[in-house]
Amino acid sequence: LLLLYYYYPSYLLYFVYVREKPNIVLMMVDDLGIGDLGCYGNNTISTPYIDRLAQMGVRLTQHLAAAPLCTPSRAAFLTGRYPVRSGMVGLGRVGAYIFSASSGGLPSNEVTFAKLAQGQGYNTALIGKWHLGLNCERAGDHCHHPANHGFDLFYGTPMTHLRDCIAGHGSVFAQVWPYVRYVVAASFWTAVLCFACLPTPFGGWRVGLGLLLIGAAAAGLYLVFDHLIGALNCVLMRDQQVVEKPYVSEDLTARMTWEAVDFMERNSGKPFLLFLSFLQVHTALFATPTLRESGPHGIYGDAVREVDWAVGFVVDTLERLNLRGNTLVYLTSDQGAHLEEVSDQGEVHHGSNGVYKAGKSTNWEGGIRVPGILSLPGLLPRGRVVDQPTSHMDLLPTLTALMGAPLPHDRQLDGHDLMPLLLGRATRSSHEFLFHYCNAHLNAVRWHPPNSDAAWKAFYFTPVFTPPGGESCTDTLVCLCHAPYVTHHDPPLLYDLSRDPSEATPLTPTTEPRFAVVMAAMAAAVERHLASLEPADNQMALGHVLWKPWLQVGERVNGDMSG
Protein backbone atom coordinates (compact mmCIF):
# COMPACT_ATOMS: atom_id res chain seq x y z
CA LEU A 1 0.00 0.00 0.00
CA LEU A 2 2.87 2.37 0.76
CA LEU A 3 4.40 1.70 -2.64
CA LEU A 4 1.03 2.18 -4.32
CA TYR A 5 0.54 5.44 -2.42
CA TYR A 6 4.01 6.63 -3.43
CA TYR A 7 3.71 5.83 -7.12
CA TYR A 8 -0.04 6.20 -7.69
CA PRO A 9 -1.38 8.47 -4.92
CA SER A 10 -4.35 9.68 -6.96
CA TYR A 11 -5.64 6.15 -7.63
CA LEU A 12 -5.31 5.07 -3.98
CA LEU A 13 -6.97 8.21 -2.66
CA TYR A 14 -9.81 7.76 -5.10
CA PHE A 15 -10.63 4.24 -4.05
CA VAL A 16 -10.24 5.15 -0.36
CA TYR A 17 -12.66 8.06 -0.59
CA VAL A 18 -15.10 6.92 -3.27
CA ARG A 19 -14.78 3.12 -3.48
CA GLU A 20 -16.67 2.85 -6.77
CA LYS A 21 -16.26 3.89 -10.37
CA PRO A 22 -17.07 7.57 -10.81
CA ASN A 23 -19.63 8.87 -13.24
CA ILE A 24 -18.13 11.22 -15.82
CA VAL A 25 -19.73 14.32 -17.34
CA LEU A 26 -17.66 16.14 -19.96
CA MET A 27 -18.91 19.43 -21.40
CA MET A 28 -17.30 21.14 -24.38
CA VAL A 29 -18.44 24.53 -25.65
CA ASP A 30 -17.81 25.45 -29.29
CA ASP A 31 -15.61 28.53 -29.92
CA LEU A 32 -15.90 29.83 -26.35
CA GLY A 33 -13.10 32.26 -25.49
CA ILE A 34 -11.22 31.92 -22.21
CA GLY A 35 -12.09 35.55 -21.54
CA ASP A 36 -15.85 34.91 -21.72
CA LEU A 37 -16.22 33.43 -18.22
CA GLY A 38 -16.37 35.18 -14.89
CA CYS A 39 -13.97 32.72 -13.28
CA TYR A 40 -11.38 33.70 -15.91
CA GLY A 41 -11.81 37.44 -15.42
CA ASN A 42 -14.89 38.47 -17.42
CA ASN A 43 -17.17 40.94 -15.66
CA THR A 44 -19.60 41.74 -18.49
CA ILE A 45 -21.24 38.34 -19.11
CA SER A 46 -22.90 36.59 -16.19
CA THR A 47 -21.81 32.93 -15.85
CA PRO A 48 -22.71 32.09 -12.23
CA TYR A 49 -23.10 28.32 -12.68
CA ILE A 50 -19.77 27.84 -14.43
CA ASP A 51 -18.11 30.11 -11.87
CA ARG A 52 -19.62 27.99 -9.08
CA LEU A 53 -18.27 24.86 -10.76
CA ALA A 54 -14.79 26.40 -10.72
CA GLN A 55 -15.14 27.24 -7.04
CA MET A 56 -16.12 23.62 -6.32
CA GLY A 57 -13.11 22.18 -8.10
CA VAL A 58 -9.84 22.87 -9.89
CA ARG A 59 -9.32 25.60 -12.50
CA LEU A 60 -6.56 25.20 -15.09
CA THR A 61 -4.97 28.42 -16.37
CA GLN A 62 -2.72 26.93 -19.06
CA HIS A 63 -5.17 24.42 -20.51
CA LEU A 64 -4.45 23.95 -24.22
CA ALA A 65 -6.39 22.66 -27.18
CA ALA A 66 -4.30 20.29 -29.29
CA ALA A 67 -5.40 22.13 -32.46
CA PRO A 68 -7.02 25.52 -33.13
CA LEU A 69 -9.86 24.15 -35.32
CA CYS A 70 -12.88 21.99 -34.44
CA THR A 71 -12.23 18.70 -36.24
CA PRO A 72 -8.57 18.10 -35.28
CA SER A 73 -9.12 19.49 -31.78
CA ARG A 74 -11.96 17.06 -31.09
CA ALA A 75 -10.03 14.13 -32.55
CA ALA A 76 -7.19 14.83 -30.11
CA PHE A 77 -9.59 15.29 -27.19
CA LEU A 78 -11.21 11.89 -27.75
CA THR A 79 -8.02 9.92 -28.43
CA GLY A 80 -5.33 11.57 -26.27
CA ARG A 81 -3.14 11.87 -29.38
CA TYR A 82 -2.00 14.65 -31.65
CA PRO A 83 -4.45 14.67 -34.58
CA VAL A 84 -1.57 14.26 -37.03
CA ARG A 85 -1.21 10.68 -35.71
CA SER A 86 -4.75 9.78 -36.82
CA GLY A 87 -4.62 11.68 -40.10
CA MET A 88 -7.18 14.20 -38.85
CA VAL A 89 -5.29 17.25 -40.16
CA GLY A 90 -5.74 19.27 -43.33
CA LEU A 91 -3.21 19.25 -46.14
CA GLY A 92 -4.42 22.42 -47.84
CA ARG A 93 -6.86 25.23 -47.25
CA VAL A 94 -9.55 23.17 -45.50
CA GLY A 95 -8.79 22.26 -41.87
CA ALA A 96 -12.21 21.03 -40.71
CA TYR A 97 -15.10 19.19 -42.34
CA ILE A 98 -17.62 21.50 -44.01
CA PHE A 99 -19.94 18.85 -45.51
CA SER A 100 -21.88 16.07 -43.83
CA ALA A 101 -21.43 14.10 -47.07
CA SER A 102 -17.63 13.89 -46.96
CA SER A 103 -15.90 10.52 -46.70
CA GLY A 104 -13.24 11.44 -44.15
CA GLY A 105 -13.53 10.88 -40.43
CA LEU A 106 -11.96 9.56 -37.27
CA PRO A 107 -10.50 6.13 -38.20
CA SER A 108 -12.23 3.16 -36.61
CA ASN A 109 -8.94 1.84 -35.22
CA GLU A 110 -8.52 4.88 -32.98
CA VAL A 111 -9.21 4.23 -29.28
CA THR A 112 -11.39 6.87 -27.63
CA PHE A 113 -12.10 7.37 -23.94
CA ALA A 114 -15.68 6.29 -24.70
CA LYS A 115 -14.49 2.91 -25.99
CA LEU A 116 -12.39 2.46 -22.87
CA ALA A 117 -15.39 3.40 -20.71
CA GLN A 118 -17.56 0.80 -22.44
CA GLY A 119 -14.93 -1.80 -21.63
CA GLN A 120 -15.33 -0.92 -17.95
CA GLY A 121 -19.10 -1.35 -17.98
CA TYR A 122 -20.03 2.31 -18.47
CA ASN A 123 -23.09 3.43 -20.38
CA THR A 124 -21.95 6.19 -22.72
CA ALA A 125 -23.64 9.04 -24.55
CA LEU A 126 -22.67 11.84 -26.90
CA ILE A 127 -25.21 14.64 -27.00
CA GLY A 128 -24.51 17.53 -29.34
CA LYS A 129 -21.84 18.17 -31.95
CA TRP A 130 -19.71 15.36 -33.43
CA HIS A 131 -17.87 16.83 -36.47
CA LEU A 132 -15.63 13.79 -36.99
CA GLY A 133 -17.21 12.29 -40.08
CA LEU A 134 -20.16 10.00 -40.79
CA ASN A 135 -20.10 7.86 -43.96
CA CYS A 136 -17.31 6.27 -46.00
CA GLU A 137 -18.59 4.61 -49.20
CA ARG A 138 -22.36 4.94 -49.18
CA ALA A 139 -25.06 6.84 -47.35
CA GLY A 140 -25.94 5.00 -44.17
CA ASP A 141 -22.76 2.96 -43.75
CA HIS A 142 -22.01 5.23 -40.74
CA CYS A 143 -18.39 4.06 -40.57
CA HIS A 144 -17.40 7.22 -38.66
CA HIS A 145 -20.58 7.43 -36.56
CA PRO A 146 -20.16 8.00 -32.80
CA ALA A 147 -21.53 4.48 -32.22
CA ASN A 148 -18.36 3.11 -33.81
CA HIS A 149 -16.25 5.12 -31.38
CA GLY A 150 -17.75 3.99 -28.10
CA PHE A 151 -21.00 5.93 -27.67
CA ASP A 152 -24.11 3.88 -26.88
CA LEU A 153 -26.37 6.90 -27.43
CA PHE A 154 -26.00 9.70 -29.95
CA TYR A 155 -28.39 12.62 -30.08
CA GLY A 156 -26.90 15.48 -32.01
CA THR A 157 -25.42 16.76 -35.23
CA PRO A 158 -22.87 14.86 -37.32
CA MET A 159 -21.56 18.20 -38.60
CA THR A 160 -20.85 21.52 -36.99
CA HIS A 161 -23.35 24.36 -36.69
CA LEU A 162 -23.01 26.79 -39.61
CA ARG A 163 -24.34 30.19 -40.60
CA ASP A 164 -26.30 28.33 -43.28
CA CYS A 165 -28.32 26.57 -40.56
CA ILE A 166 -30.31 29.72 -39.74
CA ALA A 167 -31.99 31.78 -42.48
CA GLY A 168 -30.72 35.32 -42.78
CA HIS A 169 -27.33 34.69 -41.18
CA GLY A 170 -25.34 34.42 -44.40
CA SER A 171 -23.32 31.45 -45.57
CA VAL A 172 -20.00 29.90 -44.69
CA PHE A 173 -19.59 29.42 -48.44
CA ALA A 174 -19.98 33.12 -49.27
CA GLN A 175 -16.32 33.34 -50.18
CA VAL A 176 -16.81 30.73 -52.90
CA TRP A 177 -19.11 33.00 -54.91
CA PRO A 178 -16.32 35.33 -56.20
CA TYR A 179 -14.51 32.31 -57.64
CA VAL A 180 -17.71 31.16 -59.35
CA ARG A 181 -18.05 34.64 -60.85
CA TYR A 182 -14.51 34.36 -62.18
CA VAL A 183 -15.34 31.04 -63.83
CA VAL A 184 -18.51 32.48 -65.38
CA ALA A 185 -16.75 35.63 -66.61
CA ALA A 186 -13.77 33.71 -67.98
CA SER A 187 -16.06 31.26 -69.74
CA PHE A 188 -18.14 34.07 -71.26
CA TRP A 189 -15.28 36.14 -72.64
CA THR A 190 -13.38 33.10 -73.88
CA ALA A 191 -16.57 32.01 -75.64
CA VAL A 192 -16.89 35.45 -77.24
CA LEU A 193 -13.29 35.16 -78.42
CA CYS A 194 -13.99 31.74 -79.87
CA PHE A 195 -17.06 32.99 -81.74
CA ALA A 196 -15.23 36.02 -83.11
CA CYS A 197 -11.76 34.72 -83.88
CA LEU A 198 -11.71 30.99 -84.51
CA PRO A 199 -12.58 29.94 -88.05
CA THR A 200 -15.46 27.55 -88.53
CA PRO A 201 -13.27 24.54 -89.47
CA PHE A 202 -11.80 24.71 -85.99
CA GLY A 203 -15.26 24.52 -84.49
CA GLY A 204 -15.16 27.97 -82.92
CA TRP A 205 -18.89 28.14 -82.31
CA ARG A 206 -18.90 24.69 -80.71
CA VAL A 207 -16.07 25.61 -78.34
CA GLY A 208 -17.73 28.90 -77.51
CA LEU A 209 -21.08 27.27 -76.82
CA GLY A 210 -19.40 24.66 -74.65
CA LEU A 211 -17.68 27.33 -72.60
CA LEU A 212 -20.92 29.25 -72.15
CA LEU A 213 -22.59 26.08 -70.92
CA ILE A 214 -19.73 25.43 -68.47
CA GLY A 215 -20.10 28.94 -67.04
CA ALA A 216 -23.87 28.64 -66.78
CA ALA A 217 -23.58 25.22 -65.13
CA ALA A 218 -21.05 26.53 -62.59
CA ALA A 219 -23.32 29.42 -61.65
CA GLY A 220 -26.44 27.28 -61.55
CA LEU A 221 -24.83 24.53 -59.48
CA TYR A 222 -23.54 27.01 -56.94
CA LEU A 223 -26.89 28.81 -56.62
CA VAL A 224 -28.76 25.53 -56.12
CA PHE A 225 -26.16 24.25 -53.68
CA ASP A 226 -26.16 27.53 -51.75
CA HIS A 227 -29.95 27.30 -51.44
CA LEU A 228 -29.91 23.69 -50.23
CA ILE A 229 -26.84 23.61 -47.98
CA GLY A 230 -28.85 24.16 -44.83
CA ALA A 231 -30.99 21.09 -45.50
CA LEU A 232 -27.93 19.06 -46.53
CA ASN A 233 -25.68 19.88 -43.59
CA CYS A 234 -27.90 20.95 -40.71
CA VAL A 235 -29.41 17.65 -39.58
CA LEU A 236 -30.24 16.29 -36.15
CA MET A 237 -29.81 12.57 -35.53
CA ARG A 238 -30.89 10.14 -32.85
CA ASP A 239 -28.50 7.22 -33.01
CA GLN A 240 -28.60 6.08 -36.68
CA GLN A 241 -31.72 8.02 -37.73
CA VAL A 242 -32.22 11.59 -38.93
CA VAL A 243 -35.01 13.13 -36.87
CA GLU A 244 -34.88 16.76 -38.03
CA LYS A 245 -33.69 18.12 -41.38
CA PRO A 246 -32.90 20.95 -41.22
CA TYR A 247 -33.02 21.30 -37.47
CA VAL A 248 -34.59 24.21 -35.61
CA SER A 249 -31.78 25.76 -33.61
CA GLU A 250 -33.72 28.20 -31.41
CA ASP A 251 -34.45 25.71 -28.62
CA LEU A 252 -31.78 23.14 -29.50
CA THR A 253 -29.59 23.72 -26.44
CA ALA A 254 -32.60 23.26 -24.17
CA ARG A 255 -33.59 20.04 -25.96
CA MET A 256 -30.07 18.65 -25.73
CA THR A 257 -29.88 19.57 -22.06
CA TRP A 258 -33.12 17.70 -21.37
CA GLU A 259 -31.72 14.76 -23.31
CA ALA A 260 -28.65 14.81 -21.06
CA VAL A 261 -30.86 14.91 -17.96
CA ASP A 262 -32.91 11.97 -19.25
CA PHE A 263 -29.74 9.94 -19.88
CA MET A 264 -28.45 10.60 -16.35
CA GLU A 265 -31.81 9.70 -14.79
CA ARG A 266 -32.03 6.42 -16.73
CA ASN A 267 -28.48 5.44 -15.80
CA SER A 268 -28.33 6.69 -12.21
CA GLY A 269 -27.86 3.15 -10.87
CA LYS A 270 -24.76 2.31 -12.93
CA PRO A 271 -21.62 4.17 -14.01
CA PHE A 272 -22.07 6.43 -17.02
CA LEU A 273 -20.01 8.72 -19.23
CA LEU A 274 -21.83 11.69 -20.76
CA PHE A 275 -20.18 13.95 -23.34
CA LEU A 276 -22.34 17.07 -23.75
CA SER A 277 -20.92 18.86 -26.78
CA PHE A 278 -22.63 22.23 -27.23
CA LEU A 279 -23.33 23.72 -30.66
CA GLN A 280 -23.14 27.16 -29.09
CA VAL A 281 -21.37 29.56 -29.31
CA HIS A 282 -20.45 28.81 -32.92
CA THR A 283 -22.14 30.99 -35.51
CA ALA A 284 -24.89 31.29 -36.56
CA LEU A 285 -25.68 32.45 -33.04
CA PHE A 286 -28.94 31.52 -31.38
CA ALA A 287 -30.49 31.48 -27.92
CA THR A 288 -33.79 30.41 -26.39
CA PRO A 289 -36.16 33.42 -26.51
CA THR A 290 -36.74 33.38 -22.74
CA LEU A 291 -33.01 33.93 -22.20
CA ARG A 292 -32.65 36.81 -24.66
CA GLU A 293 -31.84 40.22 -23.26
CA SER A 294 -30.32 43.43 -24.59
CA GLY A 295 -26.93 43.05 -22.94
CA PRO A 296 -23.65 44.65 -24.05
CA HIS A 297 -22.65 41.56 -26.03
CA GLY A 298 -25.92 41.08 -27.87
CA ILE A 299 -26.89 37.59 -28.93
CA TYR A 300 -23.36 36.29 -28.27
CA GLY A 301 -23.76 37.11 -24.58
CA ASP A 302 -27.19 35.45 -24.61
CA ALA A 303 -25.69 32.28 -26.10
CA VAL A 304 -22.97 32.16 -23.42
CA ARG A 305 -25.57 32.65 -20.70
CA GLU A 306 -27.65 29.79 -22.14
CA VAL A 307 -24.64 27.49 -22.00
CA ASP A 308 -24.13 28.59 -18.40
CA TRP A 309 -27.77 27.76 -17.63
CA ALA A 310 -27.33 24.30 -19.19
CA VAL A 311 -24.19 23.63 -17.13
CA GLY A 312 -26.05 24.61 -13.97
CA PHE A 313 -29.01 22.41 -14.86
CA VAL A 314 -26.78 19.39 -15.45
CA VAL A 315 -24.94 19.88 -12.14
CA ASP A 316 -28.21 20.44 -10.27
CA THR A 317 -29.56 17.20 -11.75
CA LEU A 318 -26.55 15.33 -10.40
CA GLU A 319 -27.30 16.82 -6.99
CA ARG A 320 -30.97 15.80 -7.22
CA LEU A 321 -30.01 12.25 -8.13
CA ASN A 322 -27.45 12.11 -5.27
CA LEU A 323 -24.69 11.53 -7.82
CA ARG A 324 -22.70 14.73 -7.44
CA GLY A 325 -20.23 13.34 -4.91
CA ASN A 326 -19.24 10.53 -7.26
CA THR A 327 -19.24 12.39 -10.60
CA LEU A 328 -16.31 14.07 -12.30
CA VAL A 329 -17.55 17.17 -14.10
CA TYR A 330 -15.27 18.78 -16.67
CA LEU A 331 -15.82 21.89 -18.78
CA THR A 332 -13.74 23.28 -21.64
CA SER A 333 -13.90 24.81 -25.13
CA ASP A 334 -12.66 23.16 -28.32
CA GLN A 335 -10.52 26.23 -29.16
CA GLY A 336 -10.44 29.97 -28.71
CA ALA A 337 -13.01 32.52 -29.82
CA HIS A 338 -13.46 33.06 -33.58
CA LEU A 339 -12.46 36.71 -33.95
CA GLU A 340 -13.42 37.01 -37.63
CA GLU A 341 -17.11 36.47 -36.86
CA VAL A 342 -18.94 39.76 -37.47
CA SER A 343 -22.46 39.81 -38.92
CA ASP A 344 -23.40 41.52 -42.19
CA GLN A 345 -24.87 44.30 -40.04
CA GLY A 346 -21.56 44.77 -38.21
CA GLU A 347 -22.65 43.10 -34.96
CA VAL A 348 -19.81 41.32 -33.15
CA HIS A 349 -20.57 37.61 -33.07
CA HIS A 350 -17.48 36.40 -31.24
CA GLY A 351 -16.17 36.21 -27.73
CA SER A 352 -13.05 37.28 -25.88
CA ASN A 353 -9.71 35.53 -25.52
CA GLY A 354 -8.74 37.82 -22.67
CA VAL A 355 -5.15 39.05 -22.73
CA TYR A 356 -4.15 36.35 -25.20
CA LYS A 357 -3.27 37.10 -28.80
CA ALA A 358 -5.46 36.27 -31.83
CA GLY A 359 -8.01 33.44 -31.80
CA LYS A 360 -9.45 30.35 -33.44
CA SER A 361 -7.44 28.87 -36.36
CA THR A 362 -4.14 30.20 -34.96
CA ASN A 363 -1.62 28.82 -32.49
CA TRP A 364 -1.18 32.15 -30.79
CA GLU A 365 -2.38 31.71 -27.21
CA GLY A 366 -5.81 33.15 -28.01
CA GLY A 367 -6.44 30.27 -30.39
CA ILE A 368 -5.46 27.38 -28.13
CA ARG A 369 -5.59 28.48 -24.47
CA VAL A 370 -9.05 27.43 -23.31
CA PRO A 371 -11.03 27.10 -20.07
CA GLY A 372 -10.36 23.94 -18.09
CA ILE A 373 -12.47 23.19 -15.00
CA LEU A 374 -12.65 19.85 -13.16
CA SER A 375 -14.74 19.04 -10.12
CA LEU A 376 -15.08 15.77 -8.18
CA PRO A 377 -16.25 16.47 -4.61
CA GLY A 378 -14.57 14.41 -1.93
CA LEU A 379 -11.46 13.90 -4.02
CA LEU A 380 -10.45 17.06 -5.84
CA PRO A 381 -9.78 20.13 -3.69
CA ARG A 382 -12.11 23.11 -3.88
CA GLY A 383 -10.89 26.37 -5.36
CA ARG A 384 -7.50 25.04 -6.46
CA VAL A 385 -5.77 26.79 -9.40
CA VAL A 386 -3.16 24.95 -11.48
CA ASP A 387 -0.84 27.21 -13.48
CA GLN A 388 0.96 24.49 -15.42
CA PRO A 389 0.72 23.43 -19.08
CA THR A 390 -2.08 20.89 -19.54
CA SER A 391 -3.79 19.62 -22.67
CA HIS A 392 -7.10 18.30 -23.96
CA MET A 393 -5.12 15.15 -24.69
CA ASP A 394 -4.73 14.61 -20.94
CA LEU A 395 -8.38 13.66 -20.53
CA LEU A 396 -8.04 10.14 -21.91
CA PRO A 397 -5.26 9.01 -19.53
CA THR A 398 -6.93 10.84 -16.63
CA LEU A 399 -10.29 9.16 -17.22
CA THR A 400 -8.58 5.82 -17.79
CA ALA A 401 -6.98 6.05 -14.37
CA LEU A 402 -10.25 6.98 -12.67
CA MET A 403 -12.19 4.21 -14.40
CA GLY A 404 -9.53 1.61 -13.65
CA ALA A 405 -9.08 0.83 -17.34
CA PRO A 406 -5.75 -0.16 -18.90
CA LEU A 407 -4.14 2.34 -21.25
CA PRO A 408 -3.77 1.17 -24.85
CA HIS A 409 -0.13 0.15 -25.29
CA ASP A 410 -0.15 -0.44 -29.05
CA ARG A 411 0.03 3.27 -29.92
CA GLN A 412 1.74 6.50 -28.95
CA LEU A 413 -0.29 8.56 -26.48
CA ASP A 414 0.53 12.23 -26.01
CA GLY A 415 -1.58 13.02 -22.93
CA HIS A 416 -0.74 12.50 -19.25
CA ASP A 417 -2.80 11.69 -16.16
CA LEU A 418 -3.82 14.99 -14.57
CA MET A 419 -4.66 13.59 -11.14
CA PRO A 420 -1.25 14.22 -9.51
CA LEU A 421 -1.47 17.90 -10.54
CA LEU A 422 -5.13 18.24 -9.58
CA LEU A 423 -4.53 16.72 -6.14
CA GLY A 424 -1.40 18.76 -5.49
CA ARG A 425 0.78 15.65 -5.34
CA ALA A 426 2.80 17.04 -8.26
CA THR A 427 3.77 20.65 -8.71
CA ARG A 428 4.96 20.45 -12.31
CA SER A 429 3.26 19.34 -15.49
CA SER A 430 4.37 16.14 -17.18
CA HIS A 431 4.41 18.08 -20.45
CA GLU A 432 7.94 19.31 -20.93
CA PHE A 433 7.32 19.89 -24.65
CA LEU A 434 4.08 20.46 -26.56
CA PHE A 435 3.80 20.70 -30.34
CA HIS A 436 1.33 23.01 -32.04
CA TYR A 437 0.16 22.17 -35.55
CA CYS A 438 -1.53 24.37 -38.15
CA ASN A 439 -3.29 21.69 -40.18
CA ALA A 440 -0.54 19.17 -41.02
CA HIS A 441 2.28 21.70 -40.59
CA LEU A 442 4.29 21.96 -37.38
CA ASN A 443 3.71 25.58 -36.48
CA ALA A 444 5.14 26.11 -32.99
CA VAL A 445 6.79 24.36 -30.05
CA ARG A 446 6.34 24.98 -26.32
CA TRP A 447 8.99 24.09 -23.75
CA HIS A 448 8.57 24.12 -19.97
CA PRO A 449 12.08 23.17 -18.77
CA PRO A 450 12.58 21.21 -15.55
CA ASN A 451 13.47 23.34 -12.53
CA SER A 452 12.42 26.53 -14.30
CA ASP A 453 9.38 28.79 -14.40
CA ALA A 454 10.02 29.71 -18.02
CA ALA A 455 7.44 28.79 -20.66
CA TRP A 456 9.24 29.11 -23.98
CA LYS A 457 7.27 29.12 -27.22
CA ALA A 458 8.79 29.32 -30.69
CA PHE A 459 6.94 29.93 -33.97
CA TYR A 460 8.29 28.63 -37.28
CA PHE A 461 5.67 30.61 -39.18
CA THR A 462 2.81 32.96 -38.29
CA PRO A 463 -0.39 33.99 -40.10
CA VAL A 464 -0.56 37.23 -42.07
CA PHE A 465 -3.28 39.23 -40.33
CA THR A 466 -5.80 41.23 -42.37
CA PRO A 467 -6.18 44.08 -41.96
CA PRO A 468 -2.50 44.62 -41.08
CA GLY A 469 -1.93 45.44 -37.44
CA GLY A 470 -4.91 43.39 -36.28
CA GLU A 471 -5.11 39.93 -34.73
CA SER A 472 -7.43 38.18 -37.17
CA CYS A 473 -7.67 37.15 -40.82
CA THR A 474 -10.79 38.97 -41.95
CA ASP A 475 -10.18 38.47 -45.67
CA THR A 476 -10.28 34.66 -45.41
CA LEU A 477 -12.57 34.33 -42.33
CA VAL A 478 -10.02 32.00 -40.72
CA CYS A 479 -6.23 32.18 -40.74
CA LEU A 480 -4.67 29.74 -43.18
CA CYS A 481 -1.53 27.64 -42.93
CA HIS A 482 0.20 28.01 -46.28
CA ALA A 483 1.73 30.65 -48.55
CA PRO A 484 0.92 33.42 -49.27
CA TYR A 485 -1.10 33.59 -46.04
CA VAL A 486 1.82 32.96 -43.65
CA THR A 487 5.24 34.44 -42.90
CA HIS A 488 8.07 31.99 -42.20
CA HIS A 489 10.66 32.88 -39.56
CA ASP A 490 14.35 31.94 -39.50
CA PRO A 491 15.31 32.04 -36.73
CA PRO A 492 11.90 31.25 -35.21
CA LEU A 493 10.00 33.85 -33.21
CA LEU A 494 10.65 33.11 -29.54
CA TYR A 495 8.55 34.16 -26.54
CA ASP A 496 8.67 33.44 -22.83
CA LEU A 497 5.01 33.17 -21.86
CA SER A 498 5.85 33.40 -18.17
CA ARG A 499 6.95 37.00 -18.78
CA ASP A 500 4.94 37.83 -21.91
CA PRO A 501 1.66 35.88 -21.95
CA SER A 502 0.24 38.17 -24.64
CA GLU A 503 3.10 37.28 -27.02
CA ALA A 504 3.69 40.97 -27.65
CA THR A 505 7.48 41.12 -28.00
CA PRO A 506 9.57 38.35 -29.58
CA LEU A 507 12.94 37.66 -28.05
CA THR A 508 16.17 37.76 -30.05
CA PRO A 509 19.73 36.49 -29.53
CA THR A 510 20.53 40.03 -28.39
CA THR A 511 17.72 40.37 -25.85
CA GLU A 512 17.76 36.76 -24.60
CA PRO A 513 21.15 35.21 -23.68
CA ARG A 514 19.62 31.70 -23.65
CA PHE A 515 18.23 32.01 -27.17
CA ALA A 516 20.61 29.49 -28.78
CA VAL A 517 20.22 26.98 -25.92
CA VAL A 518 16.43 27.16 -26.12
CA MET A 519 16.42 26.77 -29.90
CA ALA A 520 18.75 23.76 -29.71
CA ALA A 521 16.58 22.04 -27.08
CA MET A 522 13.46 22.63 -29.15
CA ALA A 523 15.11 21.38 -32.34
CA ALA A 524 16.10 18.14 -30.59
CA ALA A 525 12.56 17.74 -29.23
CA VAL A 526 11.07 18.28 -32.68
CA GLU A 527 13.38 15.65 -34.14
CA ARG A 528 12.26 13.13 -31.51
CA HIS A 529 8.62 14.01 -32.02
CA LEU A 530 8.75 13.68 -35.80
CA ALA A 531 10.53 10.35 -35.46
CA SER A 532 7.61 9.09 -33.34
CA LEU A 533 5.04 9.75 -36.09
CA GLU A 534 3.84 6.77 -38.08
CA PRO A 535 2.18 6.97 -41.52
CA ALA A 536 -1.59 7.45 -41.36
CA ASP A 537 -4.20 7.72 -44.09
CA ASN A 538 -4.95 11.42 -44.28
CA GLN A 539 -8.63 11.90 -43.49
CA MET A 540 -8.59 15.55 -44.58
CA ALA A 541 -7.15 15.03 -48.07
CA LEU A 542 -9.14 16.64 -50.89
CA GLY A 543 -10.89 13.39 -51.77
CA HIS A 544 -12.06 13.03 -48.16
CA VAL A 545 -13.40 16.58 -47.64
CA LEU A 546 -15.27 17.12 -50.93
CA TRP A 547 -19.06 16.89 -51.03
CA LYS A 548 -20.11 13.48 -52.36
CA PRO A 549 -23.85 13.34 -53.15
CA TRP A 550 -24.00 9.56 -52.69
CA LEU A 551 -22.93 10.01 -49.05
CA GLN A 552 -25.62 12.55 -48.27
CA VAL A 553 -27.37 11.99 -44.94
CA GLY A 554 -30.73 10.25 -45.39
CA GLU A 555 -34.25 11.57 -45.02
CA ARG A 556 -35.71 12.24 -41.61
CA VAL A 557 -37.95 9.69 -39.91
CA ASN A 558 -41.41 10.65 -38.72
CA GLY A 559 -41.37 12.55 -35.45
CA ASP A 560 -38.59 14.00 -33.37
CA MET A 561 -38.23 10.84 -31.26
CA SER A 562 -36.81 13.00 -28.48
CA GLY A 563 -37.40 12.11 -24.88
UniProtKB/TrEMBL annotation:
GO terms for molecular function: arylsulfatase activity; metal ion binding. The chain crosses the membrane at residues 179-198, 205-225. It comes from the Eukaryota. Pfam families: Sulfatase, Sulfatase_C. Keywords: Calcium, Hydrolase, Membrane, Metal-binding, Transmembrane, Transmembrane helix. The keyword Aminoacyl-tRNA synthetase does not apply. Its cofactor is Ca(2+). The keyword Hydrolase applies. One of its GO terms (cellular component) is endoplasmic reticulum. InterPro entries: Alkaline_phosphatase_core_sf (IPR017850), Sulfatase (IPR050738), Sulfatase_CS (IPR024607), Sulfatase_N (IPR000917). Residues 22-405 form the Sulfatase N-terminal domain. PANTHER family: ARYLSULFATASE FAMILY MEMBER (PTHR42693), STERYL-SULFATASE (PTHR42693:SF9). Belongs to the sulfatase family. This is Steroid sulfatase (microsomal), isozyme S. It comes from Gadus morhua (Atlantic cod).
